[in-house]
Design brief:
Distance between the termini: 69 Å
Enzyme class: transferase
Radius of gyration: 22 Å
CATH topology of the largest domain: Spore Coat Polysaccharide Biosynthesis Protein SpsA, Chain A
Subunit structure: Homotetramer.
Number of domains: 2
Bound molecules: adenosine-5'-diphosphate-glucose
Organism: Desertihabitans brevis
CATH architecture of the largest domain: Alpha-Beta Complex
CATH class of the largest domain: Alpha Beta
Strand order of the largest sheet: 5-4-1-6-11-8-12
Structural class: alpha/beta
Keywords: ATP-binding, Carbohydrate metabolism, Glycogen biosynthesis, Glycogen metabolism, Nucleotide-binding, Nucleotidyltransferase, Transferase
Number of helices: 9
Shape: elongated
Number of strands: 30
Catalytic activity: alpha-D-glucose 1-phosphate + ATP + H(+) = ADP-alpha-D-glucose + diphosphate
């Protein structure tokens, strides 16, 4: 069989309201993650490592830092030549901003016509995982169906954030409920539900027809999960691809099946803690399936005056000068001064933590300055009174460039 022609389209227009204030002035896929990465690096690395090099990234909301990151990291990446193209909303059909994720695809149909693919891979941009998408493509082609949805089991308590799948023994999807208030449990495991990962493969002609009908339907919300997947389920043309069957070179048994939606502050914080646990639930150190990013031009991290970091990721350019860092992730050029204490926290680029300061279970956005002796995450009432966000799970978030005084 000749190699099928594939076009990948990455949906990168999400606002990420539940990640506020991290998404005040950046699109959700541009949110930094794991020290030196941004969320979009995970899907783009998965596509590139899977040999799928023809990629359009559909951006929209506050896309400036996202566009810059894609051009610096991906468009120029020598391993890919110039395959990754960011497509800003204004380059599409018509003058309007798009209405939903399906409309973003519909308005980008010119890319499909130009590339003339047999199959279209449509993936979200906000998740942390490794996946060989070639295996899902094979399953899609072998099924002969029009639509394949990647799925995995999630705790039922979290399932109302997802599209929930019911499938028969042959993996054909028999029902799909987008973000149901009361998600059904599985027959063999009532406290789990089968969730869509928001990653799809379509046969090109079928997707074009579906998007055309959707665009003409005034009652549609033009949403991939809410409208397009149900369209194919109704026509008995959708199957689920079980993510736990996917194998990626270099991953350990414990890494297998790791997938996190980091759509909330608590989930974002939790996924960082997964990175720094001694046996990480998700390892960034797998060189056989590298996650690619734009490494900063900065010297190695430096530890002076008995500064320490334990169970932590410390990026280039950081200086730990007599402070202690524990179970935390530090982006490039962070400074932690004498007698300061940082624990269970995520510090983004160029934050500084002054002498005797305490930062606990917190996320500090770029450029935050914690003054000498100041505290973050110690007293939640005080945190809220100072205008910081405190999540349901008790994580304090300080927005970009904010100065935290000692009183
Ligand atoms: P959500 O992630 O809540 O659920 P959505 O907000 O549409 O759905 O985001 C999906 C992807 O599309 C993200 O990568 C986002 O950045 C992007 N996006 C959102 N709106 C867009 C737009 N107008 N244009 C371009 N891109 C856009 C989805 C599915 C669920 C599934 C979860 C898994 O709808 O069924 O369970 O993903 O995380």
């Amino acid at each position: 069989m000749s190699r099928p022609k594939v076009l990948s389209m990455v949906l990168a227009g999400g606002e990420g309201k539940r990640l506020m204030p991290l998404t005040v002035d950046r699109a959700k896929p541009a949110v930094p993650f794991g020290g030196t990465y941004r969320l979009i690096d995970f899907v783009l690395s998965n596509l590139a490592n899977s040999g799928l090099h023809r990629i359009a990234v559909l951006t929209q909301y506050k896309s400036h830092s996202l566009d810059r990151h894609i051009s610096q990291t991906w468009r120029m990446a020598t391993m890919l030549g110039d395959f990754v193209t960011p497509v800003p909303a204004q380059q599409r059909l018509g003058p309007r901003w798009y209405l939903g994720s399906a409309d973003a695809l519909y308005q980008s149909m010119n890319l499909v016509i130009d590339a003339d693919p047999d199959y279209i891979v449509v993936f979200g941009a906000d998740n942390i995982y490794r996946m060989d998408i070639g295996q899902m493509l094979t399953a899609h082609i072998e099924s002969g169906l029009a639509c394949t949805v990647a799925g995995l089991r999630v705790p039922r308590s979290e399932a109302s954030a997802f599209g929930i799948i019911d499938a028969d023994a042959s993996a054909r999807i028999t029902s799909f409920l987008e973000k149901p208030a009361d998600p059904p449990g599985l027959l063999d495991s009532p406290e789990e539900s089968y969730a869509s990962m928001g990653n799809y493969i379509f046969t090109r002609s079928a997707l074009q027809t579906a998007l055309g009908e959707d665009a003409a339907n005034p009652s549609s919300r033009h949403d991939m999960g809410g409208d397009i997947v149900p369209y194919f389920v109704e026509r008995e043309q959708a199957q689920v691809y079980d993510f736990t069957h996917n194998t990626v070179p270099g991953t350990s048994e414990s890494d297998r099946g790791y997938w996190r939606d980091v759509g909330t502050i608590d989930a974002y914080h939790h996924a960082h803690m997964d990175l720094v646990s001694v046996r990480p639930a998700f390892s960034l150190y797998n060189e056989e399936w590298p996650i690619v990013t734009n490494a900063p031009q900065a010297p190695g991290a430096k530890f002076v005056l008995r500064g320490t970091a334990e169970d932590s990721i410390v990026s280039p350019g950081c200086i730990i000068s007599g402070g202690d860092v524990d179970s935390s992730v530090l982006s490039p050029r962070v400074r932690v001064d004498k007698w300061a204490n940082v624990e269970h926290s995520v510090l983004l680029d160029r934050t500084t933590v002054g002498r005797n300061a305490v930062v606990r279970k917190a996320i500090l956005d770029k450029g935050v300055v914690v003054d000498d002796g100041a505290e973050v995450g110690v007293d939640h009432e005080h945190d809220r009174a100072r205008g910081f966000t405190v999540s349901a799970g008790g994580i304090t978030v300080v927005g970009k460039n904010v100065r935290v005084p000692a009183t």
